[in-house]
Each structure stands twice: as C-alpha cells, then as structure tokens.
Design a protein that fits this description.
Radius of gyration of chain B: 19 Å
Number of domains of chain B: 2
Oligomer: heterodimer
Strand order of the largest sheet of chain B: 2-1-3-4
Number of strands of chain A: 13
Helix content of chain B: 55-70%
Radius of gyration of chain A: 31 Å
Strand content of chain A: over 45%
Shape of chain B: elongated
CATH class of one domain in chain A: Mainly Beta
Number of helices of chain B: 7
Strand content of chain B: 5-15%
Structural class of chain B: alpha+beta
Chain lengths: ~190, ~150
C-alpha cells in the first residue's frame, strides 16, 4: 500500500491505493501498453472478414457463365458460393443455333448433394440418372429458340464443403457444351 | 456434433467480440444496447441451431455454451496468468480528483462519462474522488477522498 504525501510532510487527504491496484500496472500501464494493439488487431481482423463478406467471398451473389459453340450456347446463372440454410436459384439458358432434336441437360451430383431441390420449372420431359449424374430430358429446341430452365434450391445446413457442379448439354448422345464448375458451401 | 461445433465457434467468437468491444460498451445498457443485444441473440441462434427445433439440439447448444463458460471461469480461477487475457485488468482512470488522461482516452471515456458515473455514486464533483478504477466488468468504482 502506498500513500502519497504533500510537500510539507502532511499526509495527503487522498486515500491509500486501493487493494490489489498496482499503480505501475493499473495506472501507468507498465507491461500492458501493447495490449491495446491486440484489441485493434482483432478489430482489424473482424473488419477484414466483414469486407470479404461484402465483396461476395462467402456468397451468394449469382454469376453468369456462358459457353458458346456453333450448335448451341449454354448460359448458367447461379451462385458458386452459398451458405447453409440459404435459398438460391440456378438458371440455365440454352440457345439453339441449330435444331436440337433431343436436348438433354446433365448435372453432376454436387448440384443436389446436401441441397434440397424445391422446384424445377418448367418440368422437364423426363428425369433420370446417367452414370450417377442427373439427366433432364428437355426435348426438341428449334434453331434460334431459347430454352430456360429454373432450379430452386435450399442448402441443407450441415452441408459444408466444395463439390463439383458441372453442367453438360447433349443433343441425344452428342455432347455439345460443358461447363466445369464447383460450388462451395460455407457453414 | 454439428451443433456442438457451432456452439464452440459462436462462444469463441462472442468472447473475442466482447473483449474487442471494450469495457465501456459492456458496462452500459442503454435502450439501444438492449435492442442490439436482442438482435445479437437472434442472429446467433439462427447460426447455432439453424432449422433444428429438437429438444436434443437445444440442450446440446445451451449445454455447450454453459460448459465453455464454466471452463473459462475455471481457467480464470486456476491460472492467474490467463486472467489478463480472459478478463482483462482494472485500469485507474481518476487519481486525486484528476482524470488520468491516457487511460481515459484508451477506454474511450470522456470527462462527462466520468462525471456521470460519479454522480450515480452520489459524488457531485470529480475533485472529491480519490481513485476511480474501471473494473474488468466495465463498471467504474469510485473511492472518495477522506475529507470529501
């Protein structure tokens, strides 16, 4: 316990330093001056994290991906980064430059792994499996026409990680367009 | 298992956030702070249990946070060196009626804040204060001068 004193030797009216308060440490901040920088560093990290969120690092802003061939073009508009529990939409636009007699859209299983498929519109003519992939039969698309397929999803909250979510367009057995992509699910 | 993991992450994040925010924000509970707390609780709940409405899920989530709180409290008691990190340390903000400027600034306090806190303790003037110490909880303890 310390007691400050006046110049004339009289005791100061100021009370003793409170118990367990060490002036060097608790007033002069001896040995803890740098602690404030830990706090500022953590605030900086938090801000960086928030900034990453604002610039779509953690999803789920959709982005377009188009592949053109002389026969047809396929545009996919969907987010590639999503988070648990969120709903999102994938839009597939097929533009036939030549007549497609039997258009088939093949999706890799990553599209449905840990996802709920809420709606598919318009309903494809058929749904089946090809070597573990989903196969939607879209049927005839005349030259110069577009076919838009919407799929609505919801991410199952326990589904975390990265998966292939490729899309391939066929005309019968002939492969026309392939989009190679991945979807990342954040917790 | 997933809920336990989420509970641990949420607890650690909230602990760090509270330490980051500083004591001043922790000590005050103005109406707006109360609203923020409710929003915080709601946002955390969604991330923690998501669509799990089960009793098991609720017990796992609350149990995880409770267990971590007990563990933190025990670590605080058992390992004094951890106390600085877990709880922080008190800081002297007024000595002999005069604010300790650098500490006051560090805690983002104004003289008005100090005077208000002193008034709440029935001390009309800072000059009457021998010591004011901002505790780890964010509350300010005042010790009056012996002649005040």
């Amino acid at each position: 316990m310390s007691r400050s004193s006046c110049g004339d030797g009289e005791p100061s009216p100021v009370a003793d330093t409170p118990d367990r308060i060490v002036l060097k440490r608790h007033r002069d901040l001896d040995g803890r001056k740098h602690h404030i920088w830990y706090r500022r560093g953590l605030v900086g990290l938090l801000c960086a994290f928030l900034l990453l969120g604002a610039v779509n690092v953690f999803g789920q802003r959709p982005a377009g991906h188009t592949v053109n061939t002389p026969v047809a073009s396929l545009e996919l508009y969907a987010p590639s980064k999503v988070r648990g529990g969120l709903m999102f939409e994938a839009r597939f636009t097929i533009t036939a430059h030549r007549d497609l007699k039997n258009a088939l859209l093949q999706l890799s299983p990553g599209w449905a792994e840990g996802m709920q498929i809420n709606t598919i519109s318009p309903s494809p003519l058929g749904e089946s499996s090809r070597n573990g992939d989903f196969l939607f039969t879209l049927g005839h698309i005349p030259a110069g026409q577009k076919y838009r397929l919407f799929l609505q999803f919801q991410v199952v909250p326990t589904n975390v990680g990265r998966r292939h979510a490729d899309v391939t367009l066929y005309d019968g057995a002939k492969k026309l367009v392939h989009i190679d992509r991945e979807v990342t699910v954040y917790p | 298992m997933d809920i336990v993991g989420r509970g641990v992450v949420v607890f650690l994040f909230l602990y760090l956030l509270m330490r980051m925010m500083g004591r001043r924000e922790l000590s005050s509970l103005e109406p707006f702070d109360l609203i923020l707390l409710i929003i915080l609780g709601d946002a955390v709940q969604q991330g923690l249990t998501q669509d799990d409405y089960s009793l098991t899920g609720a017990i796992l989530a609350v149990g995880t946070i409770g267990a971590l709180q007990i563990a933190t409290s025990y670590a605080n008691f058992k390992f004094p060196r951890l106390r600085t990190f877990l709880d922080g340390e008190p800081i002297v903000v007024v000595q002999d009626g005069k604010p300790v400027e650098k500490n006051v600034k560090r805690e983002r306090l104004t003289i008005d804040d100090l005077a208000e806190a002193a008034r709440r303790e029935g001390i009309p003037k800072l000059d009457d204060v021998a010591w004011a110490v901002m505790e780890t909880s964010g509350q300010i303890s005042f010790i009056k001068k012996s002649d005040a």
